[in-house]
Amino acid sequence: MTARIVMQPSDITRALTRISHEILESNRGSSDLVLLGIPTRGVILARRIAAILETIEPDSGVTVGALDVTMYRDDLARNVTRTPAPTEIPAGGVDGKTVVLVDDVLYSGRTIRAALDAINDIGRPRFVRLAALVDRGHRELPIRADFVGKNLPTSTSERINVRLSEIDDTDEVAIA
Amino acid sequence: MSSLTGTAHLLSTKDLTRDAAIEILDVAEDMADVSTREVKKLPALRGKTVVNLFFEDSTRTRISFEAAAKRLSADVISVSAKGSSVSKGESLKDTSQTLAAIGADAVVIRHGSSGAPRVLAQSGWIDASVVNAGDGTHEHPTQALLDAFTMRKRLHGAASRGKDLDGVSVTIVGDVLHSRVARSNAWLLTTLGASVTFVAPATLLPVGIGSWPVSVDYDLDSAIAAQPDVLMMLRIQSERMHAAFFPTAREYSREWGLDDERLARLPAASLVMHPGPMNRGLEISAGAADSPQSTVLEQVANGVSIRMAVLYLLLSGGAT
Q1: Residue A91 touches partner B, C-beta closer than 8 Å
Q2: DSSP letter at B104?
Q3: Nearest residue of B to residue A67 by CA position?
Q4: Does the predicted interface ipTM exceed a cut of 0.90?
Q5: Are B169 and B289 found together in one domain?
Q6: What is the pLDDT of residues A8-61, one digit of tens each?
Q7: In what order do the strands lie in the sheet with A63-66?
Q8: CB–CB contacts below 8 A, A to B
Q9: Each residue of A23-56: b (16+ CB within 10 Å) or e?
């Protein structure tokens, strides 16, 4: 099966810029915002969104971190052992903050459920929001994203590949 | 994807590859972060049962494994030989079959006989992961892993992940003959690229040491003059000494003990390590044990992270 490119570099940048504006709008500014990316590519996306927020509202004080959810997954006993990635919580913590979880693809919703549990063990944010570059449907849990880059109807047999230039050689979203 | 997948046990550091060892150390980095949080618990091993089976006395290893298993939300059952049917003469086979009947997913075993964990792992008496927590004078793999972790953390700090111990010189001093810690460290540290030197009286070195991947020195002062990055003092194991290995404790201390004067000759950046429990005044002076160069308490704290990593990598994943 050949891969079909559904988002070009410019599409990704536009989507992230729109998401950034939507985050500022819903939060009524940039105060107390903590962006937590879910490894691997969610962390990169969170950093990009933070950079865009910084250009929209300089000195906004938005903090960025990484939230690894490996240990909270519900399929640990079913799949091969996963090696966890680092969790980095910004110095200010999450208590009383607005946490925006950032992931590349929203699919079953199970990763996000694990992320909600993981946040629970770190502190008590005032709000938790969810941003995803791609929402491909097929939810298995009552979870939805607040900010979506692109809604992409898929079949479960298809694969979505998000590539980001920081770790891959290019910026694209492909469907195969 | 884990490189420990498929190996259900941790019996020795001799059969650990460099990649598998580094993976354990890296996962331990993540586990260490958990102990700084408000909720020091992860749900990863919920519903798993870990049995600590201790045929020999232990403080730090037993509570360390217990804390590690509990922080991963496993259920922990601790059995010590004293106060169990083992003291009535029950065999290892019967004890392990009892544990199998209870539904143990992992058995952490410490035993006075070298090779007991391997017997348990290969016997077929119990279908659980076996973790060697010290067997006789053979191996103590998690101690070596936590020592390597401690060295890496002191040398590389926050940038430790993925690194090995290439070029690090480690001098291990004392009762090598009876020390499972020295053996496990010799294999693991050389696998990770460090160079290891043993310093001990000839009576406390095992026969056949020439075939080990280490160099041997008999003089602590010349070993300190070589400016090692790490000086690891071993405990004099009086409980295993059934012969005269050195004339008197005072003489041992004078020749092979780390006293304040020798500490002063050690480079300021060198680490002083001791697996504990320490015989203060015998192999290590109080001044050396409590100096800023000493990592004794860090080793204990890191032990929990290492054991969490080992239990996680052995017990999560794969339908067993």
Answers
A1: no
A2: -
A3: B30
A4: no
A5: yes
A6: 999 999 999 999 999 999 999 889 999 999 999 999 999 999 999 999 998 888
A7: A63-66, A33-37, A98-106, A127-135, A147-151
A8: 64
A9: bbeebeebebbbbbbbbebbbbbbbbbbebbeee
Distance, CA of B296 to CA of B49 (rounded, Å)? 30
Same domain, yes or no, for B197 and B290? yes
Domain encompassing residue A18: 4-23+30-72+86-175
**CB within 8 Å of chain B, chain A residues 44-73:** 68, 70-72
Structural domain including B111 reads 18-140+303-315
What is the CATH number for A56?
Answer: 3.40.50.2020
pLDDT at B319 over 50: no
Q: Give the pLDDT mean for B23-36.
A: 92
The CATH number of whichever domain residue B256 belongs to comes to: 3.40.50.1370
A151 occurs within a structural domain: yes
Number of domains in chain A: 1
Give yes or no: residues B163 and B227 share one domain: yes
Number of domains in chain B: 2
Helix, strand, coil share of chain B (percent; to 5): 40, 15, 40
Burial of residue B53, with CB atoms counted within 10 A of its CB: 0-12 exposed, 13-18 middle, 19 or more buried: buried
A80 → closest Cβ in B5, B47, B72: B5
pLDDT in tens, A109-157: 999 999 999 999 999 999 999 999 999 999 999 999 999 999 999 999 9
